[in-house]
Specification:
By secondary structure, this protein is an alpha/beta fold. It is built from 7 helices and 7 strands. It has one domain: Rossmann fold, CATH 3.40.50.170. Helix 1 runs parallel beside helix 7 and helix 6 packs across helix 7.
């Protein structure tokens, strides 16, 4: 992407509920990027590990309050005030409310630890997904990066990557394989999508 004049920097907010290993990879990948800035880390948990990563990287944080998120303005004012252009979900366990989707159409990206449309939907996250894949004796699994719409794990697919599932795999060993794919591809795909928009 070449700009005749100075490119405006696209600001992204990373939403995460847990330790933030994907958030850390994204922050690292986009560090010193000319056109993209990780400008906000958002969590629904005050003790989420991702908040420590934000502190270490000097990135502002926002804690979501459930009532306001689901029945209020979904924190759209705060995100607008921070100048956020894209929302990246990295292990964020709350469903995204319609108010937020309408404010950020085709600008909310999620990663799912399976090959959608299989093994998606309510309750399908983390170890639940990997156990279901193993229980059904699938021979492959992987990741799906997709846009977020009003339904769980349903929006348009941007990218998929696969890994094999061996007979001796457990939910934990499969999770480790899938996490490798997440760390390898998610930061690059985010960069591509944000630059193209």
């Amino acid at each position: 992407m070449h700009c005749k004049y100075i490119c405006p920097v696209k600001k992204i907010a990373i939403f995460a509920s847990g330790t933030g290993s994907n958030a850390a990879k994204i922050i690292d990948h986009l560090k010193n990027h000319k056109s993209i800035s990780v400008s906000l880390i958002v969590s629904n948990k005050v003790d989420a590990g991702v908040l420590n990563i934000a502190t270490q990287s000097s990135i502002p944080t926002l804690i979501l309050e459930k009532e306001k998120f689901f029945r209020g303005n979904a924190f759209t004012d705060e995100l607008k005030e921070a100048g956020i252009d894209f929302i990246i979900l990295a292990g964020f366990l709350w469903k995204i409310p319609t108010a937020l989707i309408k404010k950020f159409p085709d600008r909310i990206i999620n990663i799912h630890p399976a090959l959608l449309p299989k093994y998606g939907g309510k309750g399908m996250y983390g170890q639940h997904v990997h156990q279901a894949v193993i229980d059904n004796k699938e021979t492959e699994s992987g990741i799906t990066i997709h846009f977020v719409d009003e339904h769980y794990d349903h929006g348009d697919i941007i990218f998929q990557a696969k890994c094999s599932v061996q007979e001796n795999d457990t939910a934990s060993s499969l999770a480790a394989k899938v996490l490798q794919l997440e760390h390898k591809y998610y930061p690059k795909v985010i960069e591509e999508v944000v630059l193209q928009t």
